[in-house]
């Protein structure tokens, strides 16, 4: 009887030890499920370009330690590296990058690689910065944004002719109503349009409400962008929660058509900008601080001006 008990205890002990060893040394599916990667453009202009060296960075280097990584670049090329992974595309196009880990888990990501001409064309599209609502007799400021412009023809829809010739102009409407502002530049074949509503000057009480609402919306967007910047790359649910909140609450057009202007010098669409924010916090030794946010239209956001800075961790 004692021998049977001894044998039983030994068997149970061996099973327990085997279970512990399996737990320690077998790959953790939960860890692999959280693995993601980011494609970083080395010239830091938020575009993936032909002949630009792109860096591929995994969000959790500890989870892939000792594992076999294969990168499929979507054009037939394959890389087998765990660290210092970089690649240069020679042709423009859309590519599906696949990261395979030990042949058991894979992560996919589409990227669009553009030519230098496409990049120039994207940044050369003029945009009108200005309010979408004003008051009779109020001095309103409008400016044109874009590269390559050296002539500007502004028509504010009231006089029936060209009203100004500078990149930034000030205009006041004499009569309330709805107007279409037209801007023709040397880089456009057809004028760029911007609609504005001019209210009678006695509606001052509503003006205060509009201004207060604008500040509230801008601060709300700022708060959610900061949350995206603070989230770790592995916290994808947090990332999607805040990007979807901004998109669903404030946009009237597709998110990839909403222009984000960073520090008045760099441009990106909303989706690309948020992906960059989400990546920077977890892969650099700096923290992104969203200092200020301005929007073009309270009721239909089409462009967001973000002032941001980096703070050492």
From TrEMBL:
UniProtKB keywords: Membrane, Transmembrane, Transmembrane helix
Segments passing through the bilayer: 7-26
Residues covered by the PKD domain: 71-101, 151-183
The protein's name: PKD domain-containing protein
